[in-house]
Automatic annotation (TrEMBL):
GO terms for cellular component: plasma membrane. Gene3D superfamilies: Ribonuclease Z/Hydroxyacylglutathione hydrolase-like (3.60.15.10). The keyword Transmembrane applies. Its main location: membrane. It is a multi-pass membrane protein. Keywords: Cell membrane, Membrane, Transmembrane, Transmembrane helix. This is ComEC/Rec2 family competence protein. It comes from the Bacteria. PANTHER family: DNA INTERNALIZATION/COMPETENCE PROTEIN COMEC/REC2, RECOMBINATION PROTEIN 2. CDD domains: ComA-like_MBL-fold. Residues 554-735 form the Metallo-beta-lactamase domain. It holds the Pfam family Lactamase_B.
Length: 801
């Protein structure tokens, strides 16, 4: 019988000696950023406690005639560092809070019209049809008063409202004009700014930031024209630019646990550091110079992919893992990791509330601590090479899975397999794609390298699509922290089973049997629940519904039924929630899919219906990636038609009309996107008369109201853009609907639905039904008019019913 080596066990525990330091820093940061008024007192008490413990340590040292190194003294040292780290975190928040309080005390976040002068510090990304980026505001103008400040803000703006889109990048100085609102406690950004009056780029990036921007744009140009969906992945794999990834592929990457490949992650940074180490070794440089070469390459890579906080975190974690391996002491990486986490939290306490930071930390720790034991356990049953290959994604999946439940309450069963299949292709696409990015001055070479990088990128895209399409790929899970706790327990059980009974100490061996029993119980309960849900799920829904808004989070997916015919308007942000909704309703075929436009929150779930759609009406594509979504539906057997004013048809016995967009020759004022989305009207066959407004803005709503195509009054209106403030109340007054359905995600970052929108809908006498409060919302015709069914009751106080 084997027994654990006491020396190795003691060494393993020593690598965790700084864990209390990082844990206390994280806890203090998480609490103090949410309750900043306690920062000063916490900092003062923390520093007093740290010096008190230091005094106790000094006295103990003197009383032992200078003897050091016993367990009690080591505990005192760890306690000093832990308390000091917590005090430092609280001190940072206390020092930063005056400017943050000033921005709110002056009423700048109360919806006033303001102008924000800021410097862009985060990547400019397309989110739900808007450009979104983080910035640091150095002045805010409200009326005739200017407020010099230094606060982080999050800015969102419609692409058409940016005066110089090509100059908007990290390092740009901008003026954003619009309204602002206070963010939730615990967020780094003090204000969220909706730049409804546009963003002016006052100064483009300069120096190295300008050069990096040119390199990224050059890579985007190089992949343009290559077949989708692989082409859009190349910039994401190489330099973290996901602007060319179509929404359907993005959703498939997330569903298959490959989303870490669509943007810069620790793996990308590790590849760069590893290449630098290898080059330095070939040049005969000694170890210290190899480290310098690796860090230099990593710094350049961070600048290239934009030095936003998430990239800096990934770079730090990748550097830690790579350096510990290169130094031949992988276990020592935990000491470096916990120290790095502490330093990052002291420098930016708001990281404590970042799920990305938690995932980075969990993934790195799992690789350092558990990949090797899992590989040893797997090698008892599998070839050694396969065991090693499986251990890395398995360790990451077990560590990150519980946290990912907070985003989507599902468990991807094929995530480990997908990562195993994609693993050989990812580094090739990253390295060759990065080389293509750096050869921007040699067009022929750049095009050739981009084409080579397209091959592994296409393999990754195919892997995501294939694994997502497999039956049972997504297992529904408990939501919230209960789901986190249960999945973490299951992960521990899987780890114990894989490592094997023989590798455990004799006193711990009962854990092996307990783990097998626990895992068997979870599998049985999950399978039974899935079977019961598939049979009984539809019984809990009203049988006479005509319009049903699926609860897909921050997005739209609205079903229309006439007899045995079904239509779907948009697909939501991801395939899984839409697939669950359709399965619960027992819908396996859609006669009509209306794809109003291509923002992720409307087209991200296309993969869930590909191959089950008869006809598609789609909004005007604005890019090759948009067209690829339509082409994919056509390849799945659907007949596709561009939507335009005047189109009409039938769904069962009901009739539908397209009211918007205008034909291209008449719609120059409304380019492809939110303002050119398809607006559908449905009526007849005893169903409620309804109009679905997509993501129209105030200007396009005003044009629709003045167009003369409306036939009010309507029974139901699907409120535009998830209830944002960008509405024209006159259109809703003309529609004169009895019921207003708002498809919106709970706790979304946009502040949807906005109070001003809810207020005018209430004034118009609408019954408001929101998916964030009520889950699935169904509307049907009743003897008394129109009936609204809600999956769960909305909050009774302060909320429109």
């Amino acid at each position: 019988m084997r027994s654990a080596n006491p020396t190795s066990t003691a060494r393993w525990w020593r690598t965790l000696r700084l864990l209390p330091v990082a844990a206390l820093a994280w806890i203090v940061a998480g609490v103090i950023t949410v309750i900043p008024e306690a920062a000063q007192v916490t900092a003062l008490c923390g520093w007093i406690a740290a010096f008190a413990i230091l005094g106790a340590l000094v006295l103990r040292t003197r009383s032992r005639d200078g003897t050091r190194g016993d367990g009690a003294m080591r505990a005192l040292v760890v306690a000093i560092v832990s308390v000091a780290a917590g005090a430092a975190v609280a001190s940072h928040v206390a020092l930063a809070q005056p400017d943050r309080d000033a921005a709110l005390a002056r009423g700048l976040g109360g919806g006033r019209a303001i102008a924000v002068h800021a410097r862009v510090v985060g990547k400019v990304e397309n989110r739900a049809g808007e450009l979104a980026f983080d910035a640091v505001a150095f002045q805010i103008d409200a009326g005739s008063t200017s407020h010099p400040l230094d606060v982080p803000v999050a800015i969102r703006v419609a692409p058409a409202l940016v005066d110089r889109p090509d100059a908007l990048d990290v390092g740009s100085a901008v003026t954003a004009r619009g309204t602002a609102w206070a963010t939730r406690p615990g967020q780094r950004e003090v204000l969220g700014v909706s730049a409804g009056r546009g963003v002016e780029v006052d100064e483009p990036p300069d120096g190295v930031l300008a050069a990096a921007s040119d390199l990224r744009r050059g890579l985007l140009s190089a992949v343009r024209g290559l077949p989708e969906p692989g082409a859009g992945l190349v910039p994401g794999l190489a330099v973290g630019d996901t602007s060319a990834v179509d929404p359907a592929l993005d959703a498939e990457m997330k569903a298959s646990s490959l989303s870490h490949l669509t943007a810069v992650s620790g793996a990308n940074c590790a590849i760069v550091v590893g290449l630098a180490f290898a080059a330095a070794a070939l040049a005969g440089l000694r170890r210290s110079l190899r480290v310098v070469a690796g860090l230099t390459a990593l710094t350049g890579f961070v600048v290239l992919v934009t030095p936003e906080p998430s990239v800096v975190r990934a770079a730090a974690m990748a550097a830690i893992a790579m350096l510990s391996v290169q130094l031949g002491r992988p276990a020592a990486g935990m000491s470096i990791l916990t120290l790095a986490v502490t330093v990052l939290l002291v420098g930016d306490p708001w990281l404590a509330g970042s799920l990305g930071f938690a995932l980075s930390t969990a993934a790195t720790a799992s690789l350092l601590l558990f990949a090797r034991p899992l590989a040893v356990g797997l090698s008892r049953h599998l070839p050694r090479g396969l065991a090693l290959a499986l251990s890395v994604p398995l360790a990451a999946q077990l560590a990150c899975g519980p946290l990912l439940v907070l985003i989507t309450p599902t468990v991807p069963l094929y995530g480990v397999v997908a990562n195993l299949l994609a693993a050989p292709a990812a580094p090739v696409a990253t390295i060759v794609g990065l080389a293509a990015c750096l050869t921007v001055g040699v067009p022929l070479l750049q095009s050739g390298l981009a084409a080579i990088a397209w091959l592994p990128a296409s393999w990754i895209a195919a892997t995501a699509s294939t694994t997502t399409a497999l039956p049972g790929g997504q297992v529904p899970w408990l939501e919230g922290w209960a789901g986190v706790a249960v999945l973490a327990t299951v992960g521990i059980a899987i780890g114990v089973i894989v490592i094997g009974r023989g590798a455990l100490r004799s006193r711990a061996r009962p854990l092996h049997a307990i783990s097998i029993a626990l895992l068997s119980a979870v599998i049985g309960v999950t399978a039974g629940t899935a079977a019961l849900t598939s049979v009984a799920g539809r019984w809990t829904l009203p049988q006479d519904w005509s319009i049903l808004a699926c609860d897909v989070g921050q997005g739209d997916a609205v079903l229309i039924r006439s007899g045995t015919s079904y239509a779907l308007i948009d697909t939501g942000p991801a395939p899984e929630p839409l697939a669950r909704c359709l399965s619960r309703l027992g819908i396996g075929h859609l006669d009509l899919l209306v794809l109003t436009h291509y923002d992720k929150d409307h087209a991200g779930g296309v993969a869930a219906v590909r191959g089950m759609v008869g006809a598609v009406i789609y909004g005007p594509p604005a890019s090759q990636a948009n067209q690829a979504v339509v082409d994919g539906l056509r390849a799945g057997g659907a007949e596709t038609t561009a939507g335009a004013l005047g189109m009409h048809g039938t769904l069962g016995a009901a009739e539908w009309r397209v009211l918007w967009p205008r034909p291209p020759a008449l719609s120059r004022a409304f380019p492809a996107g939110n303002d050119a989305c398809v607006v559908l009207e449905v009526r007849g066959s005893g169903m409620p008369t309804a109009i679905f407004l997509g993501d129209m803005s105030e200007s396009s709503q005003a044009a629709l109201a003045a167009s003369g195509v409306l036939l009010p009054a309507y029974d139901v209106v699907k409120v535009a853009h998830h209830g944002s403030a960008d509405q024209d109340p006159r259109l809703y007054a003309a529609i004169h609907a009895a019921v207003a359905v708002i498809s919106v995600g709970a706790g979304n970052d946009y502040g949807h639905p906005r109070s001003v929108t809810l207020a005018f809908l209430q004034e118009l006498g609408c019954v408001i039904a929101r998916t964030d409060q009520s889950g699935i919302v169904a509307v049907s015709r009743t003897d008394a008019g129109v009936g609204v069914w809600r999956e769960r009751a909305p909050p009774p106080v302060g909320t429109a019913q």
